[in-house]
Amino acid sequence: MNSEKVKKIALVAHDHKKEDLIDWSIENKGLLTEHKLFATGTTGRLLEKRLGLPVNKFLSGPLGGDQQIGASIATGEIDMLIFFWDPLEPQPHDPDVKALLRLAAVWNIPVACNEATADYIFTSPLLNKEYDRKVESYSSHTTRKIK
C-alpha cells in the first residue's frame, strides 16, 4: 500500500441495505484492499467476515457508531463515506444519520448513498490519487464572540 494514495473509507448500511453493501464490496474487493476500511459495528463485522479484510469497527450506528464516524470525519480520519441508506424505512437514529451526512458535507468528503454513486466514485481516476479537497475556513465561526 502506498500511503499517499490510501484512502480511509467508512462503510455504513442500514439493516435492509447491508446485503447490498456487502455484495458491492465483494465486487470491489480488489480496490478496497488498497485502502483502510472503517465501519459501524454490525456492518463492519459482516464485511470483515465476508471480505476477509480488516475493518476498523465503531459502535453500532444506533448506539453511537454514526456519531463516531462523524467525529472521525471532522478530525480528518475519514476521507470518504459509502453509506447505503434505506430511504423507505424509518430509522430510530435518523437524527444521527442526518448529522453524519451534514459533517460529510461540511468537511467536503465524497459521499455515496447508493450503489450507483459508489460505482461512480470507485471508477473515478481520483480514487487512487492524492486529492487536495477544499475545506472552507470556519475560523470566523469558531472565534466568534458570544454575548
UniProtKB/TrEMBL annotation:
A single GO cellular-component term on record: cytosol
Domain MGS-like residue range list: 1-147
Reaction(s) this enzyme catalyzes, per UniProt: dihydroxyacetone phosphate = methylglyoxal + phosphate
Catalytic center residues: D66
GO biological process: methylglyoxal biosynthetic process
Record bears the keyword Cell membrane: no
Family listed: Belongs to the methylglyoxal synthase family.
Descriptive protein name: Methylglyoxal synthase
Organism: Mangrovivirga cuniculi
